[in-house]
């Protein structure tokens, strides 16, 4: 055991501490740059989503197509959900280098809010997607899109057999 302690003391002098060579500051700076890159990526995703939604919206105006409103909302919400994931990732990177409990608490609150926003946005997207893929034609009406002019009827009620 004594030999191990002597060797440890000799090695300690050979390998400088991270604070002595400035490695902590280098790691801090690298994480800050990485965080900035992730935040910029999130902002770019939002910008692309807005442009895509505006283009889709303008195309739906040329012959007016009010039925595309939910599709456009889903398009934008997918981009927003992805951007929220990037922003949340940047918040997690911030907690790795946050020097105080106050900053960690603020980052935790921001991360919680973004997570809740993302949850409800994803939930709303699922509901809207299910509504778009469902058949919007009510029973008894004519389907205008297939050209066959068939009348959609209500499903037959199940037969009830009387017990004899």
Q: Which structural traits does this protein have?
A:
5 helices; elongated; mainly alpha; 164 residues
Describe this structure in words.
The chain is mostly helical. It has a domain of 107 residues. The chain is built from 5 helices and no strands. The longest helix has 39 residues. About 9% of the residues have low confidence.
Q: How is this structure best summarized?
A:
With 164 residues, the chain is an all-alpha fold.
**Distance between the terminal alpha carbons, to the nearest Å?**
93 Å
> N-to-C SSE series?
HHHHH
Query: Whole-number average pLDDT?
Result: 77
Please report the number of helical segments. 5
The geometry reads as: elongated
Which structural class matches the secondary elements?
mainly alpha
Low-pLDDT regions: 138-143, 147-154
User: Which radius of gyration do the C-alpha atoms yield?
Assistant: 29 Å
Helix content: over 70%
**Biggest sheet character:** none
Name the beta content range: under 5%
What is the fold's blueprint, element by element?
Blueprint: H1 2-14, H2 18-21, H3 23-61, H4 69-97, H5 101-133
